[in-house]
Amino acid sequence: MFSGSIVALITPFNADDEVDYQSLKSLVEFHVEAGTSSIVAVGTTGESATLTVEEHVKVVNKVVEFAAGRIPVIAGTGANATHEAITFSRLLNDSGIAACLSVTPYYNKPTQEGMYQHFAAIAKVSKVPVILYNVPSRSGVDMKPETVARLSKLDNIIAIKDATGDVTRVAQHKELCGDDFILLSGDDATGLDFVKLGGHGVISVTNNIAARDMAEMLQLAKDNKYAEAEVINQRLMGLHHGLFIESSPTPVKWAAHELGMISCGELRLPMVPLTEAGQEVVKAAFKQANIR
Predict the structure, then answer these.
(1) DSSP 199
(2) Which of 111, 113, 207, 267 could make an SS bond with 271 (beta carbons 3.0 to 4.6 A apart)?
(3) Dist. CA 39–CA 98, nearest whole Å
(4) pLDDT tens across 94-117, in order?
(5) Is the full-model pTM beyond 0.85?
(6) Residue 30: C-alpha distances to residues 61, 100, 229 (Å)
(7) What domains lie within the chain, and their CATH numbers?
């Protein structure tokens, strides 16, 4: 369930700046048909930072409804205030999600002990497994492997999404947390290398656009067919980088709209549309990936 090709799903909006649930339903169907392993709803790529609490909970519930048991749904429930993260966990405990994904507290820059206490408090109230999410480039703090190891000893903290891009952490986490602790990459560009070194899968932005390719690549990696997986990875490398040419999810929402996957590519301020220069980079990535 928590392995292979997992999509960090975008949240589509309409021209009135409201969540476009029809497009959301279409995206879920796309991933079911493409063989995506799991869906992360309302994570960073789902613009969790600009959704209201009510929207956040409704989007997760709708993704669960649209998935209808055909694909597991992981809910983004992170916040920089521990009480807010706990509130999201409580609101979604009985929603039908398979797990929650909780990011390191951003902006307030807690210590390693502060991060430990934050996630320990969330684990106490969560009825579903908790996946830690370490993304220093966004949060301003780096949860060290030793802290992850302490948290891995708690019963329902089962995994980490590591978006550091540092593949040496795979071995560190394996040694400190044990073989049963699930390791997921949060960095598309190094995701295959992460899996080659013993990781279990990738929570991917590229997957929004190239879901079948990502699913095939991760299945080949699981089958130890790394040379074949690398052929796909190199073809997708332009997307891995191009979808981060400007602040995510700006490029991937533009790409999804350009490909007719969503009704429009609207974002909420302070996110703004992809520049013309950024569009050219993504178009070149489409060509490299044989998308169109």
Answers:
(1) -
(2) 267
(3) 10
(4) 999 999 999 999 999 999 999 999
(5) yes
(6) 18, 22, 22
(7) 4-225 (3.20.20.70)
